[in-house]
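Human: We require from you a standard protein entry with sequence in single-letter code and fold as tokens, and nothing else.

Assistant:
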Amino acid sequence: MNCKITRNAANVLRRELDKPENADKKLRVVITHSHGDHAHYGLDMDNPTDKDDVVPTDKGIDVILARGEALLDGVKIDYLYFPQEGFVITNPSMGNHGDH
């Protein structure tokens, strides 16, 4: 399993992970909806279970991904400020390059 976090996203995520209420939690990427060969993704703060993989990233943030879920392998987390501020989660390895 693989996950990429951009610098913008890492900065925002670190601030969230540093909050006291998230002290023992990790970032989880979830599939909110899937159809055909792609999915829509969301983020949550959670603890891993025995059905998860904890994937390290080059930004020092570990990400929880459900083991065996092909649409999560290769996910990319970005944070954009324009045209609308917020997280953008895609999976370029699965041909998902953004919302449609």
